[in-house]
Write a structure and sequence with these properties.
Elements (H helix, E strand, L loop, with lengths): L1 H11 L5 H13 L11 H10 L3 H13 L3 E2 L3 H9 L4 E2 L2
Parallel strand pairs: 1-2
Helix pairs in contact: 1-2, 3-4
Amino acid sequence: MRCVNILLTAERRKRISNEDVLACLMRLTSLPLRTVSSEDHLPILRLAGKYQLSAYDAAYLALAVAENVSLATLDAGLERAASAESLTFGLG
C-alpha cells in the first residue's frame, strides 16, 4: 500500500503520469516478492533500544536476524549492530 501512496503522491504533484503509475504497479506486481508480517514489534523495539537504531533500521535488522541472512548496508551503526547480532554484512 505504501508504494501506491508514493506513486499517487508523485502523480498529484505532476511528477509522473497516470500511465506511469499503472506501469510501475504492473512491474511491482510482477516481481517475485515475499512479504512478512510486521505485527510483532517486540524484536524491533528490542534492537532499536539495544543499538540506538531508528525504527526503520531496527526493522531491517530484525528481518535479517529472523531470516538469518546477510545485511547490506553502508551505515556504520547498523553494520556494528549486525555484527553484534552475528550477521554478516556487506557494502560497507
